[in-house]
Amino acid sequence: MLELGAASWAVLIAGAAVAGWIDAIIGGGGLILIPLLLAVCPGLAPASALATNKVAGFFGTSSAAIKLSRHLPPPRGFALRFVPVALVSAGAGALVASSLSREVMRPLIIVLLLVVGVIVASKPQFGTKVGAMRPRLALVLAAAIALYDGAFGPGTGMFLLLAFSSFLGADLLHAAPMAKVVNAATNFGALCVFIIGGHVWWSLGLVLALANICGAQLGARTVLRGGDRLLRIALLVMVVVMSVVLAIQQWG
């Protein structure tokens, strides 16, 4: 693997901490850490950047899931239903990632993000009131989002938060730990495929995982203090940021 200087380590560790904080609040930390890895380590293969990011993301998201679940436990049996589906779907997504065209995926995700933004912005009560209970639809959506995470990835935590808030009878705050539990599973499912392929830079990934955990713990505290209002604002901000980033990648 590549040699890194002290300045490069410092930048990557700081970036991993910020990514963990963002991931714990709304998801999307990969939008920071993956480009940072590729910028600081120009010779790093994209697959290795994705895999190393998954190491950091798995540990950070898992730590946020544990903290949030202690304060806001998911419904009984939730993990048994959703985690296996997320693991398998994310692994499948990682396997087919190389056959998917990102030039096709990005415009579709941008359109989906804009639809989400319009719905959330036009409905002030979205995420603050208990939604409908449609557990089967929630499970199908979780499988689809997990597949997306393995194949493409940006904003997975946000999409899970929306799905569970809309179809599991939860406000945004109570949907947050559910989203983190499933997001940790999607990270692990995709990571297993990357490990088998030999793409993980372990020495870097584990150091970044520690930084990511620190950021995730701070992010989980931020969520618990800020509640539904914070999550709603963070969701709208992430929709705008993701749309701009993906548009620049596609047409910039």
UniProtKB/TrEMBL annotation:
How does this protein sit in the membrane? Answer: Multi-pass membrane protein
The protein's matches in InterPro entries, at most eight in alphabetical order, are given as:
TM_pro_TauE-like (IPR002781), TSUP (IPR052017)
- TM ranges: 29-51, 78-98, 104-126, 138-168, 188-210, 230-251
Which cell locations does it reside in?
A: Cell membrane
Q: What is its main location?
A: membrane
Record's keyword terms, sorted: Cell membrane, Membrane, Transmembrane, Transmembrane helix, Transport
Pfam families membership: TauE
Can the keyword Transmembrane be found in this entry's annotation? yes
- Please tell me one Gene Ontology term that the record gives under cellular component: plasma membrane
Would I find Transport among this entry's keywords?
yes
Q: Which family does it belong to?
A: Belongs to the 4-toluene sulfonate uptake permease (TSUP) (TC 2.A.102) family.
Q: Which PANTHER family match?
A: MEMBRANE TRANSPORTER PROTEIN YFCA-RELATED, TRANSMEMBRANE PROTEIN YFCA
What is this protein identified as? Probable membrane transporter protein
Origin organism is Corynebacterium pseudopelargi
